[in-house]
Design brief:
CATH architecture of the largest domain: Sandwich
Shape: elongated
Number of helices: 8
Helix content: 25-40%
CATH class of the largest domain: Mainly Beta
Structural class: alpha+beta
Length: 282
């Protein structure tokens, strides 16, 4: 399922990136952390926005994200954590997108008092171990905070480019899901009537257990790693479960049609374009 996972990642990256560079990292001092933050604003699916970036803040550092007007009015907020030196917000304005105009994206590390214990141990009880241009003092005495911002614009050009890239990658993802499902279904139809399948079924160590494992991984990959913004037809998302149930039904019936297989098989074939001749590009 690595192919699916790489496509999922590509769908998330189907964006026009606007990047603010981090400061050049310096040799670390045991008594302080010279904080670096690189923030990017990705224009996704026309005029939706995701904030991403990298930082040397400790693993698990709590962060807050915001999209604001140039005048400082907050339009949307989110929270997240530092994972392996990276961070990412949700995609803001999923339903309607942003109107054309100028905006500011911010990422902020709240005060040390609200950070996990492992983070406080590194940054200090009041963030006193943090230093550099990304550090500021919390005005109510909470200690040091860290943050960065980036200006970005929503305009016709980047809206159209982001929308086109999203739809291209989404179409590729759907095609890959259907192709894998067709392959698995064809394999099932090929072996369902065999004497070996009637004998071994999907038993561990048998020749058909690998098929069951692939369907299970297919199901789990779609359930756990498919980006919400992919907006895949629910009928396609249940395909791995239907494949698995068909497999067990044919195992019980020794490959013979049952009420269940007669009801499910036609709809499954339709959902994954089974038996259709692929269209050739001219």
């Amino acid at each position: 399922m690595n192919v699916l996972k790489s496509i999922f990642a590509g769908l998330l990256l189907a964006a026009v990136l606007i990047e603010a560079p981090a400061a050049d990292p310096q040799k670390p001092d045991p008594k302080r952390i010279d904080v670096t933050i690189a923030i990017r604003a990705g224009i996704v699916r026309g005029s939706r926005v995701r904030l991403t970036g990298s930082t040397n803040l400790p693993e698990g550092t709590q962060l807050s994200f915001a999209i604001e007007t140039p005048g400082g009015r907050i339009l949307a907020q989110d929270s997240g954590t530092v994972k392996e030196g990276k961070f990412s917000s949700v995609i803001f304005f999923m339903e309607h997108g942003l109107a054309a105009g100028k905006y500011v994206g911010t990422v902020t590390m709240p005060v040390a008092a609200v950070q996990p214990q492992n983070v406080r141990t590194v940054i200090g009880p009041k963030g006193e171990n943090l230093a550099g241009k990304f550090i500021s003092k919390e005005k109510y005495g909470g200690g040091n905070t860290a943050g960065a911002w980036i200006s970005f614009s929503i305009n016709r050009r980047n809206m159209e480019k982001a929308d086109r890239e999203y739809h291209d990658k989404r179409a590729h993802l759907i095609g890959t899901i259907k192709s894998l499902a067709r392959q698995l279904l064809q394999e099932l139809l090929n072996f369902k009537d065999s004497e070996n399948f009637a004998w071994y079924g999907f038993g561990a160590g048998g020749p058909y257990n690998a098929w069951l494992k692939r369907v299970t991984e297919f199901r789990d990959t779609l359930a756990k790693e498919l980006p919400r913004e992919a907006q895949i037809d629910p009928q396609l998302l249940v395909v791995p479960g239907k494949l698995m149930q068909l497999g067990f039904e044919f195992m019980k019936s020794k490959g013979k049609p049952t009420t269940y297989t007669e009801a499910v098989l036609p709809d499954l074939k339709k959902a994954i374009d089974f038996g259709k001749t692929p269209k050739r590009r001219r």
